[in-house]
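Form P-L/3: holo structure prediction, ligand heme C.
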Amino acid sequence: MRRLVLLMIVLVGLALMLQQPKLLAQGQFMANTLMPPVPIPADNPQTDAKIRLGAQLYFDTRLSADSTISCATCHDPRTGWANHGKTDTGIAGQVGGRNSGTIINSAYMRYQFWDGRAPSLEAQALGPIHNPIEMGETLENVVVKLNAIPGYVEQFQEVFGTDVTTDGIAKAIASFERTIISGPSPYDLHLMGDDSQWTSAAERGRDLFNGKAHCSTCHSGPMFSDQSFHNLGVGFDGENPNSGRFNETNDPADFGRFKTPTLRNIALTYPYLHTGSEQTLMDVVDFYNRGGIQNDNLDLLMFPLALTQQEKEDLVAFMESLTGTIPEVPIPTFPEGPGLPADPGGGLR
Ligand code: HEC
Ligand code: HEC
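OUTPUT (holo model):
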């Protein structure tokens, strides 16, 4: 009997030893490293023609009911491929309930939307078109409208071998979005051994981010996101806080949880949080320093941080060091057809 126990202990020990490299590797994966190559799904490979088509669709206001709004209206390349509205204004001046995320690097995010309700860029792309307060069009009608435009039919034939379909629209837009990737930030250059844009404030901020302020427990990995959901209490100081991830899972534990957003290029995409309620990065740091907003489901990692003014400034400096070069894309020329014309300005406001 005793021998059996001993044998068990040895076996468990062995199993743990074998496990260890795997655990270490996981730990490494969660460090804030350089971005890996863009993940491309097997059923939607990148081609130049598809990306060109996707760019036209992204900027074409004819995807909206009254030809006034394109994806770029809300995800504007001039403002970090997002916009500075607290929440968004869609068709006929209607105001939505959430702050728009950026599409820069969205290709790296496992979930799209604040509550993660779309599992891929393809699954996300059609949502805004038939959202009544965003582009306000029906998918049936978008397909009819684009099929009446010979320049689009030709391109869909070339790229997908079909006329215009919703599946093709989603795939082309997603392929275009996978090209909107930021270049190296001062932080990335520092990782590569080039400290020409690295500051001592950013360095102190990085240590706080990983240490006293424990930001990296959630903002982990190359995208500064654990690709998961947490409750910080955002919105719980107002009436009817949004239920967040709970909308998708119906799991009470998910009530008020939202996706951990990427912090790459975060200095560009104010205001912050899903409500757009914090205007500056300093405001967000103050929010964390207070421990978030109390509610029954507040994440255990949220508690007052007792940061000094200097420490708060250093954290902001670190986040500012995460701004990389932002892709600039010329507004495409749109194929002409019957019906309302496309806005040659791509729907930018
Ligand atoms: C009226 C403004 C508006 C328009 C038009 C719009 N979006 Fe958005 N977009 C938003 C808002 C607001 C969110 C966040 C909504 C949420 O999470 O519930 C969002 C989220 C996203 C996300 C997820 C980002 C993230 O961080 O999770 C992607 C990707 C995206 N939009 C792409 C598009 C594409 C492609 C189009 C055009 C087909 C488009 N959007 C049109 C406002 C808009
Ligand atoms: C418990 C996990 C967690 C911790 C710890 C955490 N964050 Fe967050 N962070 C999130 C989530 C989730 C959101 C989105 C919350 C929402 O809008 O409801 C967020 C949002 C943000 C935003 C706004 C991003 C945007 O696109 O609007 C910034 C900036 C930010 N965090 C920085 C920090 C800093 C700095 C720290 C450390 C002081 C920190 N975070 C600690 C999970 C976390």
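COMMENT: The pocket of heme C (ligand 2) is lined by residues 213-215, 217-219, 230, 232, 234, 258, 260-261, 263, 266, 269, 272-274, 281, 284-285, 288, 299, 301-302, 315 (CB under 6 Å).
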